Amino acid sequence: MHTCFLNLKFSNVSLFLKSTDYFGQSIELNPFAHTWSLGVEEQFYLLFPFLVWFSGFAQKSKNGEKYLFWVIIFLSVLSLSLFYYLFTSDVGFLESAGYFLMPSRFWEIAAGSLVFLISLKYKRCLNFLYKFSNLIFLFLILLIFKSPYYVPSIATLITVFFTSIKILNQRKDTLAFRFLTLTPFIYIGKISYSLYLWHWGILSISRWTVGVNVITFPIKLILIFLLSVISYHF
Q1: CA distance 56 to 54
Q2: 3-class SS shares of the chain: helix, strand, coil, % to 5
Q3: How far is CA 234 from CA 38, 107, 118, in A?
Q4: Is the pLDDT of residue 133 over 80?
Q5: Rounded to an integer, what is the distance from CA 158 to the centroid of its chain?
Q6: Given a cut of 70, is residue 2 above it in pLDDT?
Q7: d(CA 55, CA 75)
Q8: What phi, psi does 44 have (nearest 5°)?
Q9: Can you tell me the distance from the alpha carbon of 173 to that of 158, in angstroms, rounded to the nearest whole number?
Q10: Can you give the pLDDT at residue 184?
Q11: Is 88 helix (H, G, I), strand (E, B) or coil?
Q12: How many Å apart are CA 161 and CA 166, to the nearest integer?
């Protein structure tokens, strides 16, 4: 179990060292390929407590929120610049580094921290966002993935931005809030980590065996859901 945990922590580094193309066909046959993002998250969580502590936020110092906010902004700008430079490089090794390594992915996870800090300190920003319908931002996110001019690096930035705005814009008195807080959606949110862990493994093993097609796909969805429920509860 300990070895498995360490492997999850550094699976992104392993995939990078192998210069894996995450969008290549070979990755579809690796049932653990999706754990790269878990490695990025774990490495982020090793760093983030130091930022919270040394900014004074953990001690609830007078300017702790402000210092933490601007430290995260600064590091996020550096991280985003690194991501764009590496991921748009024509050199496969550099592109893999931009995709798999935590320094170039820091900004995406840090966006959640910025959303939290903005909701605490910048009420005027929230009042401005409340003037817009929450569904507008959801529509814009969906539009990105349906665009015929889909560019991964730009699409990632825009998706993170609009998702963050959508969260800040969420109000309890809206139809979108009532819809997303229905019991089935809340339950899916609770088991989402298990869904993430199981989905790729099932699909990957299927490609090795029965294949992925119209007939087998519904069965796989049911299997992914059942295994996720079992994992969550037991």
Answers
A1: 5
A2: 75, 0, 25
A3: 21, 34, 37
A4: no
A5: 13
A6: no
A7: 13
A8: -65, -45
A9: 26
A10: 93
A11: coil
A12: 9
Written as six digits, the tokens of 172 are: 């309890």
> What span, in angstroms and rounded, lies between the C-alpha atoms of 28 and 8?
18
CA distance 49 to 58: 9
Does the pLDDT of residue 6 top 60, yes or no?
no
Question: What is the number of other CB atoms lying within 10 angstroms of the CB of residue 230?
Answer: 12
d(CA 75, CA 230): 39
d(CA 216, CA 39): 31
CA neighbor of 37 nearest in space, from 82, 100, 83: 100
Separation between Cα atoms, residue 22 and residue 55, nearest integer Å: 36
Number of residues in the chain:
234
Give the list of residues 6+ apart from residue 213 with CB closer than 8 angstroms, or none: none
Distance CA 179, CA 15 (A): 39
Please compute the mean of the pLDDT values over residues 7-12 and round it to a whole number: 73
pLDDT tens digits along 182-233:
999 999 999 999 999 999 889 888 888 777 778 888 889 999 999 999 999 9
Helix axes 192-208, 183-190, angle to 10 degrees: 70
What pLDDT is attached to residue 20?
57
List strand residue ranges (DSSP E) for 21-134, in order: none
CA separation for the pair 41, 50 (Å, rounded): 15
